[in-house]
Amino acid sequence: MSRTGNQAKGQKPIIAVCGKGGVGKTALSALLARGFLDLAAKPLLLIDADPAGGLISVMGQKAKSSLAQARERMIESARSGDPAAKTRLAQDLDYLVMAALEEREGYAFLAIGRMEEKGCFCPANTLLREAIDLLAEPFALVLIDAEAGLEQISRQVTRNVTKVLAVSDGSARSLDTVNLIGEMVGIERMAIVLNRLDEKAACAIVDGLPPALARSQVLGFVPEDKTLLDFDRQGRTLWDLPQDSPARKNALKIAKVLLKEANSVNPDATN
Ligand SMILES: Nc1ncnc2c1ncn2[C@@H]1O[C@H](COP(=O)(O)OP(=O)(O)OP(=O)(O)O)[C@@H](O)[C@H]1O
Ligand SMILES: [Mg+2]
C-alpha cells in the first residue's frame, strides 16, 4: 500500500510528523528515527517540536537544555542590560540553538520545550522555524515531531519542510485533521501514515478516503503493537523495541520509502 508523492529537486529532506493529538506522532517519529539510523541515513537531526516534549525520552535520551530553557537563561542574563541588548541577545539564534543542541553518534537532537511569549522576544514558533533553517544544512535528513494540531503549520514552522507526514489512527476526527493539513501545506507535500491499524483496516480507510484526500500519497501503516504500548507504559525507550516487532518493522518500511524518495530527487541527500 503506497502511492507516490513528490519533493522538489535538490531539496534536503526535512520531514515533519503532524496530526491530531494522541494519534502516535511521537511513537512514529522515534521509530522512523531508529529506522533511518538502521538504514545509515546519517547524520540525522531530530527535533522535538512539541512543547510538552516526549520524543527525546522515547528515544531514551535526556536533553540537557531545551531551546526554551536556553532562551530563558539568556533573557535572565540580559535582564540587567539595556533593552536593545536584551533584544539582541534573545534573538542571537546561533548561540541559543548551540546551547540546546545535543550531539550523539550519528545524530543530534533539539527539544523546543515550553516557552512563554515575552514582549519583544522572538515567539516560540518563529524561533523554532528559524532554528530548523539554521541547523538543517549539515544533516542528511531532518525529522520533526510536531505539536498536535495545526498551530505549528499555520505559524509556518513547516515552511521549509519537504514532507509533512500526516498521521491518522483511522478515526474520523484524525482524518479531518489530515484533510486540514492537506489544505494548509498542499496535498503534494503531505503523505498519510495510518497508525494502530492492521493492513486490512488500513486499506479500508484508504479506499474510503474523502475525495479531497483521494490523491494523497499514502506511505503505509503501523499496526497496533502491544510491545510498543508496554514499553511506553513502562517508560522504556522505543529504540529498544525488538527488530521484529510489528511497529518497528513497518516503520522501517516507511523510512525506506522516504529515503528512496529523497534520494531519487536529491542523490546526495542521505549518502
Ligand atoms: N502502533 C502503536 N501500537 C500501540 N500503541 C501505540 C502505537 N502508536 C502509539 N501508541 C500509543 O499511543 C499513545 C499515544 O502515542 P504518542 O504519544 O506517540 O501520540 P502523539 O500523537 O505523539 O500524542 P500527542 O499529540 O500527545 O503528542 C502512547 O501511549 C503510545 O504508546
Ligand atoms: Mg507526541
Which characteristics define this entry?
single chain; 271 residues; alpha/beta; Rossmann fold; 8-stranded mixed beta sheet; 11 helices; 8 strands; 42% helix; globular; disordered N terminus; binds adenosine-5'-triphosphate
What is this structure, in a nutshell?
The protein has 271 residues and is α/β, with parallel strands linked by helices.
Describe this structure in words.
The chain has a domain at 14-48 and 124-261: Rossmann fold, CATH 3.40.50.300. An 8-stranded mixed β-sheet has the order 3-4-2-5-1-6-7-8, sandwiched between helices. The protein contains 11 helices and 8 strands. It is of the alpha/beta class. The protein has helices spanning 25-38, 55-58, 67-78, 83-90, 93-100, 124-135, 151-154, 172-185, 199-207, 226-233, 246-265, and strands at 14-19, 44-48, 102-104, 107-111, 141-145, 163-168, 190-195, 217-222. It is globular and about 60 Å long. A hairpin with a 2-residue loop joins strand 3 (102-104) and strand 4. The longest helix has 20 residues, at 246-265. Bound molecules: adenosine-5'-triphosphate and magnesium ion. Adenosine-5'-triphosphate (ATP) is lined by residues 21-27, 50, 54, 148, 195-196, 222, 224-225, 228-229, 232, 247.
